[in-house]
Amino acid sequence: MDLFDKGNHIMLEGGYDRETGTMSNIRICTDNWLVVLDGAFEGMEEIIKKRLQLQDTIGFSQSTVAKNVPQDLLKYIEPDDLVRWGFLTELVSRITEICVLNPITKEVAYQILTRAKECELQKHIDLCKLNHIDLKFTDDALMTVADYIAHHKYGFRSAEKAFAKIMKPVYFEHSSMTTQQNTTTVVIDKEFVNQQLKIK
Question: Is 142:106 a contact under the CB 8 Å cutoff?
Answer without folding.
Answer: no
